[in-house]
Every structure is written in structure tokens, then in C-alpha cells.
TrEMBL record:
Protein name per UniProt: LSM2-LSM8 complex subunit LSM8
Subunit-level organization: LSm subunits form a heteromer with a doughnut shape.
Signal peptide bounds: none
Pfam families found in the cross-reference section: LSM
Stated role: Plays role in pre-mRNA splicing as component of the U4/U6-U5 tri-snRNP complex that is involved in spliceosome assembly, and as component of the precatalytic spliceosome (spliceosome B complex). The heptameric LSM2-8 complex binds specifically to the 3'-terminal U-tract of U6 snRNA.
Main localisation: nucleus
Keyword RNA-binding: yes
Gene: LSM8
Organism from which the protein derives: Myxozyma melibiosi
Subcellular compartments: Nucleus
Residue span, Sm domain: 1-76
InterPro entries, per the entry: Lsm8 (IPR034103), LSM_dom_sf (IPR010920), PTHR15588 (IPR044642), Sm (IPR047575), Sm_dom_euk/arc (IPR001163)
Length: 99
């Protein structure tokens, strides 16, 4: 996957991690293990009953082994969304329990 990320550098991306967290930020760099460096990072915490909580994290490193999904954000569309009104079920982990 990391070779496809070059087109995303200096672009706003969305990342979903294996523990169900959702991040957006400007991709500053990556490596062969898909470790991602994001600037202006925000974590969106979406729940069924409360407004979406948006946490400003600044510069953030996401370990490649936890990346499940990575894609470009349509910034114009994203800014039109009223995140206070967005509700949804918590994303579940994609990790299998260790036995």
C-alpha cells in the first residue's frame, strides 16, 4: 500500500485504524511499513447519542500495522458537514482476540 501513498502527500486524508478510531489530517510522509505522519490531525469520535467530538491532535504518527483504511478527503464536502448532527455506532476493532 505504501507505494500508492505518494499521490496523497500534502493532501487531506482520512484514516481508520484497527481499533476503530477515525483520523483526518494532512499527510506529511510515510514509510515502507505504512507508518503515517499527519499534520493538523483531528480525531473524530462518533457516538449514537452525543454530538461528534473532534479532538485536535496536531502532528500525529499512526503506526502502519494499525491502518485499516486510508483515502483522500473531499475537503469542500467535508467542510459542509455539520458534525454536531452526525451520529453513528462506534466502529468495532478489526483485531482478532489472542488465544
Amino acid at each position: 500500500m505504501s507505494s500508492h501513498l505518494q499521490a496523497y502527500v500534502n493532501q487531506t486524508i482520512i484514516v481508520i485504524t484497527s481499533d476503530g478510531r477515525l483520523f483526518t489530517g494532512n499527510l506529511q510522509g510515510y514509510d515502507q511499513q505504512t507508518n503515517l505522519i499527519l499534520a493538523d490531525t483531528k480525531e473524530r469520535v462518533i457516538t449514537p447519542d452525543e454530538p461528534t467530538e473532534i479532538l485536535d491532535l496536531g502532528v500525529y504518527l499512526i503506526r502502519g500495522d494499525s491502518v485499516v483504511l486510508c483515502g483522500l478527503v473531499d475537503v469542500a464536502m467535508d467542510t459542509e458537514i455539520d458534525w454536531d448532527k452526525v451520529r453513528g455506532q462506534k466502529l468495532h476493532t478489526t483485531k482478532r482476540p489472542v488465544r
